[in-house]
Amino acid sequence: GPGIKYYSTVNGNDATVFVETFSNSDNVFIELYDQENNLVLQQKGTKVSFLVKDAHLWNGLIDPYLYKIVAKIICDDEVLDEISCNCGIRTFKVDPKKGFFLNGKSYPLHGVSRHQDRKALGNAISYEMMDEDMNLIKEIGANTIRLAHYQHNQYFYDLCDELGLLVWQDFMFACAVYDLTDSFYDNIRLEARDNI
User: Fold this and answer.
1) Which of 83, 119, 133, 163 has an alpha carbon within 20 to 30 A of 154's alpha carbon?
2) DSSP per-residue codes, 69-133
């Protein structure tokens, strides 16, 4: 995705969205927009937090509401660079006896595993082919997708957010046995942190 990292916490009806950008500029302005493209909040800085009153939660297939985070580098009233990403405010929890919970409510997971490839094309599939995959997945009533083995195209992650599907992302080192050295363990920890 773009050079924006965010996470959110929910407290009652309100949420705090923590945003970090990866820029060396002192002129970064971060904006949060609602789904109707209305500016909700804005701040200057590479690491900011927004208190969102009466936050509209992303609620899976029921209501996949997305905010948008926009980061701009502005100098002398000119936008030199701009990036954005969608932001779904939500909470989740897994209970080994009761299952998955989304925003405090039980949310049984029904899904599929997806590889990002096609015969004779390998991993070089088009957006149209990704849309076709998504339409088939939606047709069977899935609310969860395991994106198998490797990082998939950002376009497909965005489709999942927009359409309300939860994603199970495999770690890069999930499908083999490795010699666990200290440096390899540190690498796995970094990957886990970056993916979560």
Assistant:
1) 119
2) EEEEEEETTEEEEEEEEEE----EEEETTTEEEETTEE----EEEE---BTTTBT---HHHHHHH
pLDDT in tens, 10-47: 999 999 999 999 888 889 999 999 999 999 999 999 99
- Range 189-194, long-range pairs (CB < 8 A, 24+ positions): none
CA atoms within 13 A on the CB side of 47: 0
**DSSP letter string over 1-40?**
--SEEEEEEEETTEEEEEEEE----S-EEEEEE-TT--EE
Rounded CA separation 190/170 (Å):
14
> Which residue is it, tokens 């580098």?
73
The amino acid at 104: G
Q: C-alpha angle 99/113/117, rounded to 5°?
A: 160
